[in-house]
Design goal:
This protein has helices spanning about 5-15, 20-25, 30-45, 60-90, 100-105, 105-115, 130-140, 150-155, 180-185, 210-220, 235-240, 250-260, 290-295, and strands at about 50, 55, 90-95, 120-125, 145-150, 165-180, 200-205, 225-230, 250, 265, 275-285. The protein has about 300 residues and is an alpha/beta fold. The protein folds into three domains: about 5-75, Winged helix-like DNA-binding domain superfamily/Winged helix DNA-binding domain (Arc Repressor Mutant, subunit A, Orthogonal Bundle); about 80-170 and about 275-295, 3-Layer(aba) Sandwich (D-Maltodextrin-Binding Protein, domain 2); about 170-275, D-Maltodextrin-Binding Protein, domain 2, CATH 3.40.190. The longest helix is centred in the first third of the chain and has 31 residues, at about 60-90.
Length: about 300
């Protein structure tokens, strides 16, 4: 049994809707439903009456709810206590971030921080997947700092946002690109005006930050694009684009050299570009001096 199953269950009990709860938990509705079903299978009982709307709890669900709330309260309290003790013992800052930002943004920040704080230590965790997991890790104390692409479409439904303060660490832009050979073979200059068979789309995974930024544009283009490949890593999509496999929205910071050499070309105007801020988040209540020094470096 996983704690997130109980968190999903409590969220669903509060909202009465699989769709609303899946949005609150930043997962797709099918994935959310599977997690609720996994909890039911683990317990061996049905917790949710799915025959009505809003959905309601079965007698088993009503019996479980106070236990689930108490388990989560205890688990989060214990973790926070130990995180605080461990964090006080070392001059360390744990950073959750996206894989792309760990490569293209954090090195300069790390250098600047360590020059002023030679006894400091930064631990970067780029492998965490899913919007909810990033913010949960920050609020729970598992990490001290969160550095992400920020947008209202991403942060609007983060329940803990009032507990956090943020600072802009930079800007970037997601550009629709393809290899020069791919674009030339299809006479492709701008996706907006493209006619003919759907073009292969190299897409971001549904749980990723970038997917939430790009999806509105993909939907607006209708049938011009057809997903053929999916990854949470922009570096993976970049490799596929360079292999003439399709169109991808890639962060400008990751493809500057390829654009300059002409290996990749932009295949859409400003209306198809996504300007984003790179933001850092921390808890308002944080008292870590190491984190304070890193915050000032930002």
């Amino acid at each position: 049994m996983e704690l997130k199953w109980l968190e999903d269950f409590v969220c669903l009990a509060n909202l009465g809707s699989f769709w609303k709860a899946s949005e609150e938990r930043f997962v797709s509705q099918p994935a959310f439903s599977r997690r609720i079903r996994a909890l039911e299978n683990w317990l061996g009982v049905t917790l949710i009456d799915r025959s009505s709307y809003p959905v309601t709890l079965t007698p088993y669900g009503r019996q479980l709810l106070p236990y689930a709330q108490e388990i989560l309260k205890t688990a989060h309290g214990v973790r926070e206590e130990f995180r605080m003790v461990a964090g006080a013992a070392v001059n360390e800052v744990r950073i959750a971030t996206l894989h792309t930002l760990s490569i293209y943004v954090l090195p300069a920040l790390t250098r600047a921080f360590l020059e002023k704080n030679p006894n400091g230590r930064l631990v970067v965790i780029p492998s965490m997947q899913g919007v909810e997991h990033h913010f949960d890790a920050l609020v729970s104390g598992a990490v001290h700092l969160l550095v992400i692409y920020a947008d209202r479409t991403i942060t609007a439904n983060v329940a803990q946002i009032d507990q956090l303060e943020d600072k802009v660490a930079g800007t970037d832009e997601l550009l629709p690109v393809a290899s020069a050979a791919f674009a030339r073979a299809r006479s492709l200059e701008d996706l907006s005006g493209h006619e003919g068979p759907p073009l292969p789309l190299l897409a971001y995974s549904s749980f990723s930050f970038s997917e939430k930024l790009v999806t509105p544009l993909v939907r607006a283009l209708g049938k011009r694009l057809k997903p053929v490949y999916e990854s949470s890593l922009s570096e993976s999509l970049k490799a596929m684009a360079l292999a003439d496999a399709g169109v991808a929205w890639l962060p400008k910071c990751t493809i500057a050299a390829e654009l300059e050499r002409g290996d990749l070309v932009v295949v859409g105007g400003s209306a198809l570009a996504v300007a984003v801020e790179i933001k850092a988040y921390r808890l308002k209540t944080s008292a870590s001096r190491a984190l304070g020094a890193l915050w000032e470096t930002l």
